[in-house]
Amino acid sequence: MVEAEAITQSFGEVKALDGVSLQVRPGEVFGLLGPNGAGKTTLVRVLTGVLKPDGGRAWVAGLEVAKEPHRVKAKIGYATQEQSVYRDLTVEENLLFRARLYRPKEARALAQEALKRFGLWPYARSLAGHLSGGWRQRLALAQAVVHRPEVLFLDEPTTGLDPLSRRSIWELIHQEAAGGAAVLVTTHYMDEAERCHRLALLFAGRVLAAGTPQELKAMAKERARFLFAPGASLEAVRGRPGVLEAWPSGEGVRLIARKEMHLEGFQEVEPSLEDVFALLSKEAL
Ligand SMILES: Nc1ncnc2c1ncn2[C@@H]1O[C@H](COP(=O)(O)OP(=O)(O)OP(=O)(O)O)[C@@H](O)[C@H]1O
């Protein structure tokens, strides 16, 4: 459904993408997790045909993106970080506008269906500019899928939303995947990465690892120890040989240490995705 093969892209001295390969299957929510500047938006721009990369190839919905960018655009939904809703149109008008671009004959029926599917009925006649951030983001998502695309690209769809709104946006993302769409979603929230079927950890333009959240954690446990030091001071823990990372956590200190180290008095804990990321980015530096 989505296949990227060794994509590279530089902006002057900056290597935004450095040989990125990945696949997203139909029915799957695939997360692209990485800090600011990792290259997430650049990859989405390449995969949606907005930006032609320096190197590598990409296929989306059976088409090679660089060769047929216009046909690709009709088959995908794309919600960018910049909110793409028109504030001075109503919710319904926004949906109609988008649907008409791709499937003019069915536009009215598609807009009605999206209003229902996304629970936007009560706001159909409200101006988009009057919606709260959470509902506007819901509209942005509805707009991206109103023409029933096979592949959906969502660039940080929950940035700036409160936890409850984020939760409901994630429910909708999974609803679209359950309907058969291949969904690629970028995020820098570690808890959101846990909600993906599979994910790739992107750092400085490179995929450090890819897999299900469970696979990534299992891989990290093979390579390092994840520990908690109750009542310890940060300085004391950081000073011990073999400690790769340490940070304050509740009544003690959390740390990542080399596998071969014997650290008596420490409790072994299950790594989170944040721990996995901390370990891999440390190794990559
Ligand atoms: N058009 C551009 N011109 C110059 N540099 C760019 C351009 N677009 C991206 N970059 C640089 O490429 C790198 C990757 O940027 P990108 O926006 O893809 O990262 P990101 O992972 O999406 O970050 P964020 O989470 O902040 O959106 C950054 O160093 C950025 O400054």
Automatic annotation (TrEMBL):
PROSITE patterns: ABC_TRANSPORTER_1, ABC_TRANSPORTER_2. The keyword Glycoprotein does not apply. Residues 2-229 form the ABC transporter domain. Signal peptide: none annotated. InterPro entries: AAA+_ATPase, ABC_transporter-like_ATP-bd, ABC_transporter-like_CS, P-loop_NTPase. Keywords: ATP-binding, Nucleotide-binding. One of its GO terms (molecular function) is ATP binding. This is ABC transporter ATP-binding protein. It comes from Thermus tengchongensis. The lineage of its organism: Bacteria, Thermotogati, Deinococcota, Deinococci, Thermales.
